């Protein structure tokens, strides 16, 4: 077993200094560069000083310590304020509570703090991790090597970990199919790209795939990258719909319902009638979608169920010691309302 002495010799500092760094002792300052070297040695040498591991009584069967705590990596804004993610959060928290687990909300800043990461992950202060926010690739690899991890939503759909999501490309395809069935051939798109380019976002890929298969030209001037900003969706849509009728779309697919609602306001202010002059369809079935006037046609995503399935998948990995990366895609549903 790797000891503090091994780390001290590897770095070239005293055992006391190593202990202060690992315990995050703020009573005496340690040079930041020294701290960095100590944590690097911890990773390279595989030092795991959790007290449980130190004091295990040798026996033929050694039971794994369980804390009954799950870490959820999502910014408070996503978990509590964003309607889409708050439903996922509800599904997760209720499922974990029913199974006797508690949920600990973490941020990227927490995981980038070496002392905190060491305590939570390397010393296994949590039994598993649920991920929504995008995490650094190196951090992700280290987490999944140590404890069970499940990704929820799009950030982790292409990683070698268990994930729960819906088929974003197919959802966008279904939306375009609906618009085409209503006679639309001039179709625009409002989406967003923050951590990735919008052209690589799966709903946009589904939009382009459908347009191509239905033989419809994608007009670049009718593509709006709102960066998931409602104000940007509103302003850009107003500029687009201010064009002469022959130069603007007759329908717009929006990658999120809130983007669609903002765009619909722009149409209202220009005196356009929905859906006669311009039709809108969203994706996710935000609670507001059924109350706007006219009510918004949308692709309904089972957000609460995504949280439930993600929590159950993680519990199964923890309790059954299953280490298989399962990709779960939940079904979606077209809800036709007045906006188309």
From TrEMBL:
InterPro entries recorded: HTH_LacI, LacI/GalR-like_sensor, Lambda_DNA-bd_dom_sf, Peripla_BP_I
Keywords: DNA-binding, Transcription, Transcription regulation
One Pfam match: Peripla_BP_3
GO MF annotation: an example: DNA-binding transcription factor activity
Domain HTH lacI-type per the UniProt entry, residue ranges: 2-58
PROSITE patterns: HTH_LACI_1, HTH_LACI_2
SMART domains in UniProt: HTH_LACI
PANTHER family for this protein: HTH-TYPE TRANSCRIPTIONAL REGULATOR GALS, LACI-RELATED TRANSCRIPTIONAL REPRESSOR
Protein name in the entry: LacI family transcriptional regulator
Origin species: Psychrobacillus lasiicapitis
